[in-house]
Amino acid sequence: MDRMIHTALNTLKNLQNIRQATAQNLASVDIPGFRKDLPKEGRSVFINAMDSATARIYNLETGTTSFSEKQGVLRQLGAQTDVAIMSEGYFFVEPKNGEVALSRRGDFSVNGEGQLINGAQELMLDDGLQPIEMPPFSEFRISEIGEISVTPMDGPSGIFQDVAVLGTTSAQGEELTKGEDGQIRRLDGTVPGVDQQVKLVQGALEASNVDAVSELVQSIEAQRQFEMGVKFIKMAEDIDRGGAELMRLPQG
Description:
Helices cover about 25% and strands about 25% of the residues. It is an alpha+beta fold. The chain folds into 2 domains: about 1-65 and about 210-245; about 75-205, no CATH class. The strands form 7 sheets. Strands 5, 6, 9 and 13 form a 4-stranded antiparallel β-sheet that branches. Strands 10-11-12 form a 3-stranded antiparallel β-sheet, with no helix packed on it. Helix 1 (about 1-25) runs antiparallel to helix 2 (about 210-245). It holds the Pfam family Flg_bbr_C.
């Protein structure tokens, strides 16, 4: 009976991870370049005591969060500073916490310090992993391999000057995960090297790869399974109470 209850509790723990991932995905469905979170990897184990198996079973997790690398839909919005990745790979960004990470978000703009940022206010980094300083410009252009050039605000139209090369990596053969801050890095917290093998397209944005309908259905299904797990625990409690009543000695 104890094993029955612990199995149910383990199931509820697994469902909690699924519900957390689903909630995060639904909240991020409109974020450009967002990668769908997958439930944490884990398995169930029985705890051994005195070299013998006990009835207690627990859920073990790796602590790493995987994600879907499926390509999101490319939307042609026409803005000069919108950039999408057409192949596998990532931009290098510097979030507010200062730790370099990877991103596919390409809704670029310039902050008050004249630095190129994305919609999450993360600094975009060049091929030397340094923030990109942008002069005032009237036209913005980026090549397929990330070469950024602009027409200065006071310069003649159609005349471009080189500014920087946007740092990218294909991350081929790399095992990547999302950390507690939601940023994509290697398992050890580092990032792959710059290789500039990513193909870019200007004037388009990659949408989130989250399927909102699928996530909503999964959320409803997880809720139903959670309710069934709670009922299972209640049933185990009733069975245990009934067994205790049967084992009770009659009073003389």
